[in-house]
Amino acid sequence: MNRSQLRIIDLSVPLDIRAKEPFPPEILYESHEQGAEQAAKILGLKGSDFPDSAAWAVETVTLTTHTGTHVDAPWHYAAKTAGEPSRTIDELPLEWFYGNGVLFDFSEKQPGYEIQIEDLEKQLQEMNYQLKPYDIVLIRTDADKKYFEENYAAVHAGVSADATRWLIQKGIKVMGTDGWGWDIPLYHQAADYKQNPRDGVLWAAHYVGKEAEYCQIEKLANLDLLPKRFGYKVAVFPVKITGASAGWARPVAIFE
């Protein structure tokens, strides 16, 4: 491979204590000097035995599996998918997480806009592209630009249950958004439900996972940097956590 012709675009947000998502990480940073003391205790030495009394730097991170950029597994949505036990993140085929990227741009839509099937069809027509099984669908809302702002979890356009179901029927196994969640913001859903309590409002797109197996990538970033809507690869391999509903990931778009 000629690396001079290779461009890789980072599509992830950082794990950062300043992030304004509802469940930000806690990160304890330990210095090289603290690392020397830590190593000394393990090895029966003194911290000063290490050159300059310094050894390893280390961080202790406390977070949920849904903090930062991550991939949701079917187990996140419900205990069963199509009547069978839902799979956890460690049980999913790696082949799902490397494929052709397809970008849908809803950055001009207002927070809370619910993306419908016809919205997706219109953009595909504009792109002159037909979705193929195992394409990785990316939804741009530009919510990542507000990752460090107080209202971050409420600023994205979301995807409807019908549009989610339609994507699955097209053979899409992995679909992602740069918003905090795949659905419209939960605050909008809650306000709607309080006015008119009924099924099909709360977490509606996620619950499509009860019917058919699929994965969501949430909290993507930098989708505005993609130079074209399709014609590149996306890699988004989730961390392997036994029995988990999600795994952290560092997705990238690969252009050759």
UniProtKB/TrEMBL annotation:
Task: Please provide the Gene Ontology terms (biological process) for this protein.
Answer: L-tryptophan catabolic process to kynurenine
Which GO MF term does the entry hold, naming one?
arylformamidase activity
Which SUPFAM superfamilies did the record assign? Putative cyclase
Which Gene3D superfamilies did the record assign?
A: Putative cyclase (3.50.30.50)
Task: Check the record and name the Pfam families matching this protein.
Answer: Cyclase
Q: What is this protein called?
A: Cyclase family protein
> Organism, per UniProt?
Neobacillus citreus
Upper lineage: Bacteria, Bacillati, Bacillota, Bacilli, Bacillales
